[in-house]
Task: structure prediction
Amino acid sequence: MYSVGTKNLSSPDYIGAFAKYDQLFADHPDTRLSTFEIEVFPTQAVVAVAYDSTAYPWRDIEAQVMIQMSLTGRPTSPGANAANKVAQELPQPSAKLREIYVSYAPGDEDPAAWYGKDKLPRLIELKKKWDPKDIFRYDNPCRCGHVLVQ
Result:
Protein backbone atom coordinates (compact mmCIF):
# COMPACT_ATOMS: atom_id res chain seq x y z
CA MET A 1 0.00 0.00 0.00
CA TYR A 2 1.17 3.49 -0.84
CA SER A 3 -0.26 6.50 0.93
CA VAL A 4 0.04 10.26 0.74
CA GLY A 5 -1.46 13.21 2.53
CA THR A 6 -3.15 15.68 0.23
CA LYS A 7 -3.82 19.33 0.98
CA ASN A 8 -6.82 19.62 -1.29
CA LEU A 9 -9.38 17.53 -3.05
CA SER A 10 -8.66 18.82 -6.53
CA SER A 11 -10.83 17.35 -9.28
CA PRO A 12 -8.10 17.56 -11.97
CA ASP A 13 -5.66 15.63 -9.74
CA TYR A 14 -8.16 12.84 -9.15
CA ILE A 15 -9.26 12.72 -12.78
CA GLY A 16 -5.59 12.27 -13.72
CA ALA A 17 -5.15 9.55 -11.11
CA PHE A 18 -8.24 7.68 -12.24
CA ALA A 19 -7.08 7.93 -15.87
CA LYS A 20 -3.81 6.23 -14.86
CA TYR A 21 -5.78 3.51 -13.06
CA ASP A 22 -8.00 3.06 -16.11
CA GLN A 23 -4.97 2.63 -18.36
CA LEU A 24 -3.34 0.24 -15.88
CA PHE A 25 -6.49 -1.91 -15.77
CA ALA A 26 -6.78 -1.90 -19.57
CA ASP A 27 -3.12 -2.88 -20.06
CA HIS A 28 -2.93 -5.36 -17.17
CA PRO A 29 -6.29 -6.99 -16.29
CA ASP A 30 -4.62 -8.87 -13.41
CA THR A 31 -4.45 -5.55 -11.49
CA ARG A 32 -8.22 -4.93 -11.44
CA LEU A 33 -8.55 -5.83 -7.75
CA SER A 34 -6.53 -2.71 -6.86
CA THR A 35 -8.18 0.08 -4.90
CA PHE A 36 -7.89 3.84 -4.52
CA GLU A 37 -9.15 4.98 -1.12
CA ILE A 38 -9.64 8.54 0.10
CA GLU A 39 -9.97 9.16 3.85
CA VAL A 40 -11.14 12.56 5.08
CA PHE A 41 -11.02 13.37 8.79
CA PRO A 42 -12.03 16.53 10.65
CA THR A 43 -9.04 18.75 11.47
CA GLN A 44 -10.61 21.33 13.78
CA ALA A 45 -9.07 19.86 16.96
CA VAL A 46 -5.65 19.50 15.34
CA VAL A 47 -5.46 23.07 14.08
CA ALA A 48 -6.82 24.43 17.39
CA VAL A 49 -3.51 23.45 19.05
CA ALA A 50 -0.41 25.57 18.42
CA TYR A 51 1.79 24.10 15.66
CA ASP A 52 4.98 24.27 17.75
CA SER A 53 3.44 22.48 20.73
CA THR A 54 3.12 19.04 19.11
CA ALA A 55 5.12 16.68 16.95
CA TYR A 56 2.40 16.22 14.31
CA PRO A 57 3.50 18.08 11.17
CA TRP A 58 0.71 17.66 8.63
CA ARG A 59 -2.03 19.92 10.02
CA ASP A 60 -3.01 21.27 6.60
CA ILE A 61 -3.71 17.86 5.06
CA GLU A 62 -7.36 17.46 4.10
CA ALA A 63 -7.27 13.79 3.16
CA GLN A 64 -5.15 10.66 3.12
CA VAL A 65 -5.08 8.83 -0.20
CA MET A 66 -4.22 5.14 -0.06
CA ILE A 67 -3.32 3.16 -3.14
CA GLN A 68 -3.54 -0.59 -2.64
CA MET A 69 -2.39 -2.66 -5.58
CA SER A 70 -3.82 -6.18 -5.66
CA LEU A 71 -3.12 -8.82 -8.27
CA THR A 72 -4.65 -12.02 -9.53
CA GLY A 73 -1.32 -13.01 -11.09
CA ARG A 74 2.23 -13.56 -9.84
CA PRO A 75 3.92 -10.79 -7.81
CA THR A 76 6.67 -10.68 -10.44
CA SER A 77 4.31 -10.35 -13.40
CA PRO A 78 4.42 -7.36 -15.78
CA GLY A 79 1.12 -6.24 -14.20
CA ALA A 80 2.72 -6.23 -10.73
CA ASN A 81 5.63 -4.13 -11.94
CA ALA A 82 3.29 -1.70 -13.71
CA ALA A 83 1.03 -1.48 -10.63
CA ASN A 84 3.94 -0.66 -8.32
CA LYS A 85 5.16 1.99 -10.72
CA VAL A 86 1.73 3.62 -10.90
CA ALA A 87 1.32 3.46 -7.10
CA GLN A 88 4.64 5.20 -6.55
CA GLU A 89 3.98 7.90 -9.15
CA LEU A 90 0.34 8.73 -8.34
CA PRO A 91 0.76 10.37 -4.94
CA GLN A 92 3.25 13.00 -5.93
CA PRO A 93 2.71 14.50 -9.37
CA SER A 94 3.79 17.94 -8.17
CA ALA A 95 4.87 17.35 -4.58
CA LYS A 96 8.44 18.15 -3.57
CA LEU A 97 8.11 16.02 -0.44
CA ARG A 98 5.74 13.15 0.06
CA GLU A 99 3.77 14.02 3.19
CA ILE A 100 2.36 10.94 4.82
CA TYR A 101 0.71 10.01 8.09
CA VAL A 102 3.37 7.89 9.78
CA SER A 103 1.05 4.95 10.52
CA TYR A 104 0.24 4.65 6.80
CA ALA A 105 3.83 4.83 5.58
CA PRO A 106 5.25 1.70 3.94
CA GLY A 107 8.72 2.67 5.18
CA ASP A 108 10.54 3.42 1.93
CA GLU A 109 10.21 7.19 2.34
CA ASP A 110 12.59 9.63 3.94
CA PRO A 111 11.74 10.20 7.65
CA ALA A 112 11.02 13.85 6.81
CA ALA A 113 7.98 12.58 4.90
CA TRP A 114 6.69 11.04 8.13
CA TYR A 115 7.63 13.68 10.67
CA GLY A 116 8.22 16.88 8.64
CA LYS A 117 11.56 18.54 7.96
CA ASP A 118 10.97 21.16 10.62
CA LYS A 119 9.76 18.67 13.28
CA LEU A 120 12.35 15.93 12.74
CA PRO A 121 15.36 17.60 14.46
CA ARG A 122 13.36 18.14 17.66
CA LEU A 123 12.06 14.57 17.58
CA ILE A 124 15.60 13.26 17.21
CA GLU A 125 16.72 15.27 20.25
CA LEU A 126 13.74 14.04 22.28
CA LYS A 127 14.47 10.48 21.19
CA LYS A 128 18.08 10.79 22.39
CA LYS A 129 16.94 12.24 25.71
CA TRP A 130 13.95 10.04 26.54
CA ASP A 131 14.79 6.79 24.75
CA PRO A 132 18.59 6.50 24.74
CA LYS A 133 18.36 2.68 24.79
CA ASP A 134 16.10 2.70 21.74
CA ILE A 135 13.27 0.73 23.30
CA PHE A 136 10.51 2.49 21.31
CA ARG A 137 11.54 1.83 17.74
CA TYR A 138 8.81 -0.14 16.01
CA ASP A 139 7.64 1.04 12.60
CA ASN A 140 9.25 4.05 10.90
CA PRO A 141 11.65 5.11 13.65
CA CYS A 142 13.42 8.46 14.07
CA ARG A 143 17.01 8.72 12.95
CA CYS A 144 19.39 9.33 15.85
CA GLY A 145 22.61 10.80 14.55
CA HIS A 146 23.55 8.93 11.38
CA VAL A 147 22.01 5.64 12.46
CA LEU A 148 18.49 4.65 11.51
CA VAL A 149 17.12 3.14 14.68
CA GLN A 150 14.87 0.18 13.84
